[in-house]
C-alpha cells in the first residue's frame, strides 16, 4: 500500500510544471530565440490557476478505493471501496489543483514601436519596476520577460 501511494505521488508530482522565467524547459534549450526590446509600464501580482489533468483525481480514487475496500466484510468492502474512490478522487483533484497553482506577475510592456503587450509569468528572482528596460525572449510561442542587459558602445578598431 505504501509503495502504491509513493508511486502515485511521484506520478502526480511529475505532472507539475512552472512558468518561472528562471526555469527553461528542456525543449527550449539550444533553440534560437527572438529578442525584443521593451519598457515596463506596470507590474501586478496575479495567480495562475492550478491544473486539473486528472492525475490527482485518478491517484486519489485508486488510493481511496483500495483503502475503502480493505475495510469490513465483502458487502461492506464494495460499498466502502466505491465511497473511498469518490472521496479520494475529489481530494486528489483538489490537491493537484492547489499544488500546481503559482504566484505570478502580469507585466505590461511597451515596445520600441509604441505597441503594448501583456505577459503573465511566474515570479522570478528579478524585481521588475515601471520604467525598467526589459527584453522579451520569444521561443516556440512562449515569451518571458527579463531585465535588459546593460548596453555598451564599442569603438571601431584601427
UniProtKB/TrEMBL annotation:
Residues 149-158 have a biased composition (Polar residues). It comes from the Bacteria. Residues 130-158 are annotated as: Disordered. This is Glycine zipper 2TM domain-containing protein. It comes from Rubrivivax albus.
Amino acid at each position: 500500500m505504501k509503495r502504491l501511494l509513493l508511486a502515485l505521488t511521484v506520478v502526480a508530482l511529475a505532472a507539475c510544471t512552472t512558468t518561472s522565467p528562471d526555469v527553461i524547459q528542456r525543449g527550449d534549450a539550444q533553440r534560437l530565440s527572438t529578442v525584443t526590446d521593451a519598457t515596463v509600464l506596470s507590474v501586478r501580482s496575479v495567480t495562475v490557476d492550478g491544473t486539473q489533468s486528472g492525475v490527482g483525481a485518478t491517484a486519489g480514487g485508486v488510493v481511496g478505493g483500495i483503502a475503502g475496500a480493505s475495510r469490513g466484510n465483502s458487502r461492506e468492502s464494495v460499498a466502502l471501496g466505491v465511497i473511498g474512490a469518490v472521496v479520494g478522487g475529489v481530494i486528489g483533484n483538489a490537491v493537484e489543483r492547489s499544488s500546481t497553482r503559482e504566484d505570478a506577475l502580469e507585466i505590461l510592456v511597451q515596445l520600441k514601436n509604441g505597441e503594448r503587450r501583456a505577459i503573465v509569468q511566474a515570479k522570478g528572482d528579478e524585481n521588475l519596476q515601471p520604467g525598467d528596460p526589459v527584453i522579451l525572449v520569444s521561443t516556440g510561442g512562449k515569451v518571458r520577460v527579463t531585465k535588459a542587459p546593460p548596453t555598451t558602445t564599442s569603438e571601431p578598431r584601427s
